[in-house]
Design brief:
Blueprint lengths: L14 H12 L5 H14 L19 H17 L1 H39 L5 H6 L1 H40 L3 H39 L3 H13 L2 H28 L3 H6 L4 H5 L1 H16 L24
Helix pairs in contact: 1-12, 2-4, 4-6, 4-7, 6-7, 7-8
């Protein structure tokens, strides 16, 4: 399917309707119970995607190569002498980490359809969208898991190879330009993989999930629809990414100001699981609404606020 190029698509026009959607969903009327219900879906939708940062002081000192080699040899000897317990512990830790990652990924896939349903339908429900979009969420979960594993392999393998080249080069020739070049190349490639994975994740959340919601399609089929749309609207979607960066910076600045004005008390509340999401729910509803109103500009078949009768109204498994 070749998507037609729409004559007028704006990244500014959806801002007004998105703000109005926040007022409609959360403040007309204001209902604290409603906030907690919708906030639960929003919290599930972003489960495992949050993160924090920190900093520390760096101490600069002259590198003692002999000392570094001695430490490396000691570490190598320690590992070789304790493989009997290091390998089982490492395997157990890997299983636990992968299991938690898959659990969070599955829950967030369910939550994304629940949150979209609440925003699009202006309803505060959990059970209905949880059951109705079960098949959609399973397809989304499988797609995200495969993409995550591919991203992990694509990011780690060249990084490991670059590290090995740097290690061998340093061990045989000492610290030389090849060492620096291999490390820089590995870092650049690693960052590039993360950027590509980030764009895929962003487009999956913002556009593929609504397409699946409307047409009961699987994740791969929905991505094909999006790729057809992207093929003739590349500049517009690039501008969308830029405006999303600007919106993220603006929201981040607002949060920083609120934290500073409350002497970091707000930061403590924002950091609380679920509670922080409920407090920041207007921002989450705005972000979800903005992407939906932007997508709706490409035609009525992409408008979740006025769904046509058909697959979208039929609960159950998504169609192939």
């Amino acid at each position: 399917m070749n998507a037609p190029q729409i004559r007028h698509v704006s990244v500014i026009d959806p801002i007004g309707p998105a703000i109005e959607r926040v007022r409609t969903v959360l403040f007309r009327p204001f209902d604290l119970e409603r906030w907690f219900i919708i906030g639960f879906s929003a919290w599930l939708a972003q489960l495992g995607s949050g993160g924090g940062g920190g900093g520390g002081n760096r101490t600069h000192h002259k590198v003692d190569r002999e000392s570094i080699r001695h430490d490396i040899d000691q570490a190598r000897e320690y590992v070789a002498n304790n493989l009997d317990w290091i390998i089982p512990v490492a395997l157990a830790a890997t299983v636990v980490i992968v299991g938690l990652w898959l659990l969070f990924l599955w829950l967030s896939s369910r939550g994304r359809f629940m949150f979209l349903y609440c925003v699009a339908q202006n309803k505060a429900e959990v059970t209905n969208p949880w059951r109705r979009f079960r098949g959609h969420a399973h397809s989304l979960f499988a797609f995200r898991a495969v993409v995550g594993l591919i991203t992990l392999g694509a990011a780690i393998l060249p990084f490991v190879l670059g590290g090995l080249v740097a290690w061998v080069s340093t061990a045989t020739l000492g610290f030389n330009p090849l060492t620096i070049l291999s490390l820089v190349a590995a870092v650049v490639y690693f960052v590039a993989v993360l950027i590509v994975a980030g764009v895929i994740g962003k487009f999956t959340k913002d556009f593929v999930v609504p397409i699946m919601y409307l047409h009961a399609s699987r994740a791969v089929s929905a991505w094909q629809v999006l790729l057809d749309l992207l093929s003739v609207n590349r500049a517009r979607f690039f501008l969308y990414v830029l405006i999303q960066i600007a919106i993220t910076i603006a929201i981040g600045a607002m949060i920083v100001v609120s934290v500073c004005c409350t002497c970091c008390c707000a930061a403590c509340l924002f950091a609380l699981p679920y509670i922080g999401t409920v407090i920041l729910l207007p921002l989450h509803v705005f972000g979800r609404s903005y992407s939906l109103y932007y997508l709706a500009q490409y035609g009525p078949e992409f408008n979740v606020f006025e769904p046509s009768p058909g697959p979208a109204a039929t609960p159950g498994e998504p169609q192939a």
